[in-house]
Amino acid sequence: MAELWEMGARELAGMVGERRVSCREVVEAHLGRIEEVGGQVNAVTVVLGDAALGAADETDRALRRGEAAGALAGVPMTVKENIDVAGSATTFGIEALRDAVAVRDAPHIAQLRAAGAIPIGRGNMPEFGMRWHTDNALRGATRNPWSAGHTPGGSSGGDAVAVATGMAALGMGNDGAGSLRWPARCCGVAALKPSLGRVAQAGPGSRRPMPFAFQLLGVHGVIARRVEDLRLAFAHMCGGPGDADPWYAPVPLRGPGPAAPLRVAVIGSGPGDGDESGAVRRAAGLLAGAGYLVEERTPPALVRAAELHTQIMSAYGRVHEEQPPVETVASEGFVRFWAAFEETWNRAAGERAFDPMMERAALVAAWAEWMTHTPLLLAPVCALPPFRVGTDLDPGWLSGWPAALRATVAVNLLGLPAVTVPTGTSGGLPQAVQIIAPRFREDLCLDAASAVETGTPSLTPLTPLLASRDHAGDGRPPGTR
């Protein structure tokens, strides 16, 4: 029998609900796993052990009284440090916010708790969530369990590593420019970036200002090892209340059945080294084998969508008009990253839009029309593989980054859902693709991702490989059980 920390969310909740294992045993197993491997990867920054055990004991008492178990009863989850968890600091990876303790849960965290999930720790992130590698002055760097020499991704890197190594069954993060999908791809796990408006970003009593760019482009989502666990968590994190979120829309979780066969458009990896194209081809073959109609087809104005994303994030990604110098609030690494990336960032914005929201509306309409013919889009998460730590400080290398991430940020601009799902390994590192659907059709993404997952060997959980790994590996996951 597998260890409890190796099991997925649905399996754990079923065992707790049937009283085949106690909720305390589940939490203790994951706390033990954090103790065993946490120091090697630095993914869980704050362990909420006492609170988690208290919640587990409360669940066990309720079950002994004959009360019904929640759908996520006893499932341990990590929560990224820019999401409110009552009694824990929401730091955004910033030293100055070390003591910014939240008085209440974010709406979706409260909903997940109500379904039985238990926050077990906080996930590491880069400062402000504005880097695709996880490191900060407050908590330090998170290491990729596949290779300490390669990035775990960012900005939800801590949660991706925690899930990949069995320290939690679920990781709660968010995604404004690939921050769920990129670390999931780097760590060999699955992730769901929901549609804009699906998950409330603010609830009653919310007082923290949120920049317009993050209201429009960023959404809360989930990381898991199995697609079925993404689906389970998603069903219990988008029920409101969204009173303080003007974008929130209570929409049914499953839409009308599409006409069969369902069409899937495939776009290539662009400037990558060939590995990402191979992952897309494997996924396309699995989808075709599952009855999807797979075809080469390019969505409208993909380059322009990425440019508009950059323009909006650049112009409206700040809370205050006057900001302190970045070197006074961020780590040396982040300062170096931003100095290296600023010129590329400005160039990636393209021709300035007279009214970016008006132009965005035209692109949303064009994509909606295009997706009436081909509802699903299969694409790389990034056209480049996980980079070696420190590579993102090189201005020359960074010059190709916006093009490599083009399909991913277009999804954020347009408010569409996307699921990242592993497809195997190459050179000892995991690979993955993303599947994109029309707005509020997460069900189509998840169904297609399940078809890809069914034909792909499971990559996680794994025990961290401490040595830096070059690309001469045998393709097998390190330390898998």
UniProtKB/TrEMBL annotation:
Low complexity composition-biased segments: 457-466
Instruction: Please report which protein family the annotation says this sequence is part of.
Output: Belongs to the amidase family.
State the source organism's domain of life: Bacteria
Bilayer-crossing residues are none
Tell me, what's a Pfam family for it? Answer: Amidase
Query: How far does the signal peptide extend, from start to end residue?
Result: none
Q: Which residues form the Amidase domain?
A: 25-446
PROSITE patterns documented for this protein: AMIDASES
Name of the featured protein: Amidase
Q: Please give the NCBIfam families that the UniProt record associates with this protein.
A: PRK07487.1
Task: Report the coiled-coil segments.
Answer: none
Region: Disordered, residue numbers: 457-481
